[in-house]
Write a structure and sequence with these properties.
single chain, alpha/beta, Rossmann fold, seven-stranded mixed beta sheet, four-stranded parallel beta sheet, 13 strands, binds pyridoxal-5'-phosphate
Length: 409
């Protein structure tokens, strides 16, 4: 297995100069170096990207077998959708809703939707089990597998939680920058935890190594790379339950369809899931907004440069989104189906956390990032137009974690 190539964000200008200065040859035989429009865009507006054709792009619908499986899980119920009228007034739209994943299946983040389905599919060779007991029956107890993952916190906790429920051993690798509470959350699921002074990409490499050295290890990673696609695709399919619930909840309160859905992004698997859900529908096609930390804006940089790009990551309170490389199989979905992308400072997200906590909403930094992202995305008429936002619009903020997952410090 190979990891994606790394490019330094600090050398972005140098890369722009090399990749974007194109040589024009003229009839008289002379050459001229010219700067295409994209260069100015990247140099002066690197925190914003938009693609006007994304809403018209269409793809196949994900399998609906995942809904049956999730509904069979103990503690499964729809997570709340919370209306925020003061935010709607602030943003100048009709209604704003926040999908609150702070207590999904008794964990503090949405990630278990993907991990549970991927573990279920991996242990049953992709036969779409309808319950966890069916998964448990498929395990060879003479030669039980070990589940392995790298994580910024939430995914690893979810994988460890599934391993514990199925009586399996679990190894989780954690990079730097993850809160003590998030690490303790993983340990409390009885996983063997390795905390590295390394980046997320390096933690993924270490998880690959553990898998290779293990006699019956299964790497359950929430990103794809060359030769590793089935498990991440099952994770993406698993996340679909969240959007299906949102649609039904909006219909129940006469607010369907939304015009804009804001998504917190790390490697972009969740973004892929949201795009696949909405771009496979015939009755609505909301704008999809990708929201990333400025210090880990690999999807924004990839969208802007038009090629899958890794960045050197920094430190951020949005630790679940602190990833340097977009998931390779998700990248084509980002490029075709994402309407706009923004990147945020921690300060912008802290403001959003303050607002949400004052309104009594339990959001961790990745959860609050979508409010900060929408604030940034709707702050000019041009951006509002690009996203199709009008005074009668409905906006959905996907708040993917609660404070128990990652207390901002
Ligand atoms: C709470 C939370 N939100 C958003 C994300 C981003 O998901 P993805 O890495 O698929 O882009 C993560 C990733 O771990 C997360 O933990």
């Amino acid at each position: 297995m190979q990891s994606a190539s790394k490019k330094s964000k600090t050398s972005l200008l140098a890369r722009l100069t090399h990749s974007s200065l194109t040589k024009r040859s003229f009839n008289n035989g002379s050459d001229l170096l010219v700067w295409p429009v994209i260069v100015a865009h990247k140099l002066f507006a690197m925190t914003w990207y938009s693609n006007p054709s994304a809403r018209d792009w269409r793809c196949d619908a994900p399998s609906d077998a995942v809904a049956t499986f999730h509904q069979s899980l103990a503690n499964y119920s729809y997570t709340p959708i919370i209306e925020l009228p003061t935010i709607a007034a602030e943003l100048g739209v009709a209604r704003v809703f926040l999908k609150d994943e702070s207590a999904r299946l008794n964990l503090a983040a949405f990630k278990v939707l993907g991990a549970s389905w991927a573990v279920a599919q991996a242990l049953t060779s992709g036969t779409e089990p309808t319950s966890l007991s069916q998964v448990a029956e498929a395990i060879d107890r003479e030669n039980p597998p070990t589940l392995i993952a790298a994580t910024d916190g939430n995914h690893g906790r979810a994988v460890a939680h599934m391993a514990k429920q199925l009586g399996l051993a679990c190894n989780i690798v954690i990079p730097r920058g993850v809160s003590d509470q998030a690490i303790a959350n993983v340990r409390n699921e009885d996983a063997i935890v390795e905390v590295l002074d390394a980046t997320y990409d390096e933690a993924v490499d270490r998880a690959k190594e553990i898998t290779e050295q293990s006699t019956n290890g299964i790497h359950i990673q929430d990103m794809s790379w060359e030769g590793y696609v089935d498990i991440p695709q099952w994770i993406i399919d698993g996340y679909t339950t969240l959007c299906t619930e949102v649609d039904e909840q909006l219909r129940d309160i006469d607010a369907y369809p939304a015009e804009l859905v804001a998504v917190p992004v790390g490697v972009g698997s969740f973004l892929h899931s949201v795009v696949a859900h909405y771009r496979s529908r015939t009755d609505s096609s909301p704008s999809v907004l990708s929201v990333e930390p400025e210090v880990a804006d690999c999807v924004l940089q990839s969208l802007t440069t038009g090629e899958l790009t890794s960045v050197d990551t920094g430190v951020t309170i949005m630790s679940g989104m602190n990833c340097g490389t977009p998931s390779s199989d998700s990248w084509p979905f980002h490029q075709a189906g994402v309407d706009a992308a923004v990147s945020l400072t921690d300060e912008q997200t802290r403001e959003a956390l303050k607002t949400l906590h004052a309104l009594g909403v339990d959001a961790g930094p990745c959860g609050a990032a979508t409010l900060a992202g929408v604030r940034a995305a709707l702050n000019t008429d041009e951006r509002r137009q690009a996203l199709g936002i009008k005074s009668e619009s409905v906006i959905v903020l996907l708040s993917t974690e609660g404070r128990a997952a990652n207390p901002a410090t």
